[in-house]
Amino acid sequence: MHLPLNALRAFEASARHLNLTRAAAELHVTQTAVSQHIRKLEDRLGKPLFRRLPRGLALTDEGQALLPVVAESFANLERALETLGDTRPREVLTVGAVGTFAVGWLLPRLRDFQQACPFVDLRLLTNNNRVDMAGEGLDCAIRFGDGAWHGTHAERIMDAPMSVMCSPALAHGLRTAADLARQPLLRSYRTDEWTAWFDAAGTPCPVVRGAVFDSSLTLAEAAAQGAGMALLPVSMFERELQQGRLVQPFVQALHRGAYWLTRLQTRPPTGAMTAFSTWLMAEARIGQAEI
Question: How does DSSP classify residue 46?
């Protein structure tokens, strides 16, 4: 069935506003023209899309079914046209990222970045926070720490407070920090984290004998499977919290560093690097504002 594009646009605007006058103003046509487009569309479909009310419109069941399909189609068309209209040459951007940040924060937003910066051809390499930007050919790297890396320009993305996380089963019976002495305390390669967390909680640190992991991703998975307690950056594991695979039994947090966007001071920023940095910092500000 051939459906006129102008009629579909008139329907979509009218359905959003539920008002012909406002739809006409958005489309820069007369109210009569919008009404005629909708009537022709209804005639083609053989079904009413709106109920006319004394003060505006209401969608019929058929109109409610059609609206999301039409709205998504126009959105896809607009994105495609924006991409075609971007005349900037594509630039390769090679980013190294600590795996925890890549999986927990960047990947869920990757589609948004691709839509915002379609000229950037992103190459993402993950690591366990140990990088050699020059040797690996990285334009920039996302790292966890204090921001003080020799010969490196560092821009803070976000803080990453760490807290105890474990499986729901192991959380039963935990009342105070001292109760953790009965559980395996899983460790990262930063050996003093448990001591620092217990100091902040005002409780003597028990002997730490849990397994050692070189990645927070594997550390978190071990905790989710019931292997013990883990100190993790909570904001990177919100999905696991929502799914109920991990819980946070204590509010006590340990502040040991932040995530930073870094580049060599000898590496002048390219257009792709600047676009990525601008987008990344804007997204981080939005996320912090929502907390």
Answer: T
pLDDT at 177: 95
Tokens of residue 27, six digits: 């489309």
CA 230 to chain centre: 23
As beta bridge partners, residue 202 has none
Residue 127: closest CA among 262, 269, 268, 254: 262
In three-state secondary structure terms, 165 is strand
pLDDT by residue (tens digit) across 60-70?
999 999 999 99
Q: 254 near 232, Cβ under 8 Å?
A: no
b/e string for 144-169 if b means 16 or more Cβ within 10 A?
bbebebeebbbeebbebebbbbbbee
Closest CA relative to residue 235, chosen from 176, 170, 165, 282: 165
* CA distances in angstroms from 86 to 49, 77, 79, 171, listed in the order given: 36, 14, 11, 52
pLDDT of 291 above 60: no
Dist CA 146 CA 159 (whole Å): 10
pTM confidence score: 0.68
User: pLDDT band for position 3 (50/70/90)?
Assistant: confident
Q: Do 246 and 166 touch, CB atoms closer than 8 A?
A: yes
% of residues, the chain, pLDDT over 90: 79
- CA 239 to chain CA centroid, Å, is 11
